[in-house]
Amino acid sequence: MLDEKELGEYTLMANSLRFLCADMVQSANSGHPGAPMGLADIAVVLGYHIRLNPSNPQWINRDRLVFSGGHASALVYSLLHLWGFDVSLEDLKSFRKFGSKTPGHPEYKHTPGVEITTGPLGQGVANAVGFAMAGKLASNLLGKDLINHKVYCLCGDGDLEEGISYEACSLAGHHNLDNLIVIYDSNDITIEGDCNVAWSENVNARFEAQNWEILSVDGHNFLEIDKALERAKSASKPVLIIAKTQIAKGSQSLCGSHKAHGAPLGDEEIAISKEKLGFNPEAKFFIPNTSALRFKNTAELGALANHAWQKTLEQSDKKALLEKMLKPDFSSIEYPNFAQEDKMATRVSNGMVLNAIAKTLPGFIGGSADLAPSNNTELKGLGDFPKGRNFHFGIREHAMGAISNALSNYGLFLPFCATFFVFSDYMTPSVRVASLMRSKVFYIWTHDSIGVGEDGATHEPIEQLSHFRAMPNLNVFRPCDGFENIACWQVALELEAPSAFVLSRQNLPLLQSVRKEDVLKGAYIKKDSNNIQLTLLATGSEVELALRSAQILENEGIATRVVSVPCYDLFLQQDKAYKDSLLQGKVLAIEASRGIEWYAFADAVVGMQGFGASGKGDALFKHFGFSVENITEVAKSLIK
What we know:
This protein is an alpha/beta fold.
């Protein structure tokens, strides 16, 4: 508990923090001073509660701190510096400059102490739910003596207006995530002015309806904040602390104004404000010695907690399991054998692969957006969250994606999440952030094309493959059968990046076993010929179509090679010599999607020029030109 006699010192700490943030934004001549200044009092108190160890930032039982409003980055970096992380005063002075540790919005793996890249508003709230879910599962698997940390999240009005926060908080309340504490910076200000221009929601009632405990405080009253955090740490459900604050608190002219949200205060305003609060108006990036020492208490308390935890670990019978989860052995996985099968949808073969991986890797977890029977994603016999490894995300694709990012960044888990490919549109923001972080999340996207059939154009993905292939760091796999599916997983598990598996609803013939090394290059020869005149490029269900077309063309005297491209992204990374060795003669790409990216390699593309239609999958494939007759006709015209 805070000492009432020390309120003057807490005020000095908070004002020091305010002006440090204001100086950073002013020095960069861009940024957001308002939220950091308004949150300074809360940040001071939080430092006395949170357990972090800057000398061991990856300590698995540390508390997690998520800034959902990434625009408050000046506060993030200031705290990391003052708490003792590897963020120097010079780094603060380089705020928002190219190559610095302190970019405009915090980025995971770029700045020590940043747990996750939150990016768009609302993502961080869902990330915090994900961290809390990871902590709850880890506690059940490893014991509460080893995993008992809290997850703190700072969010604002904008985060709660975004729909993703509703999805995530609904799931958190459903699971009684008592390790989650969200502090809502309720300053009633958005970029366009007062929140009431677009928002009049009863936040208290909303969260009560979602099974949260609600606490309300004056966000500038240290003792109230302290009392609320103490109460929240012993709650039996997730807690929302509604902190009424003033944006740009401490600024003499702009306190409470929306003008302080996204622009520097100005040198004159900062100088006047500093002088009014007893600071030297000429001194910049200044922290009084007494305040600096008090901020360092956070690191000292965290180091002590880490040391005590290490002793507990040494005596724990779960130590071996923890180490196995920290360092998974991919080489020991026993993949299924499809040799006896005739035809199988890749969503089905993928389900068998998921279970084989889960059998070997205790940290392999995941679930579906209420589509597990269709996605084939149930991990059989492994139970449901919070005690088991199957996650039921409900119909919440937005939140599912962001939660999975946190599950990955937590440090113990390899998460997958699943839905129909057309609904991947809901997940794009979180997939993009995962790709930016290179977080190992595995996306299972089934019902991959017009082969969906009778559900019609609204449910048939067309442009999604091109979209996700255009996303840097994301590897999109579209296997042609179960054998290629296995090889894709062998590659994906070892990549330090997210991967997507785009899988068929319809049954596909099993062609032949595939080497991991072939998939690692993104493309390989499926059928060869001599004196090649034509190369057919294909993925997924269209590979078998390419093989049948090639046989007809060969019979007519056109030497044809077939190249399967299970991962366009990996193929793109290969050197020119390898690409040229595969692409002989005229090149025709075949894919039941928009396919505009194939023009990087192909002379012509048989792809989708519009949306799909309602009808049986076979009829749609024929109607849209994915038939042997059309492929051979296009190929022959290309040769002529």
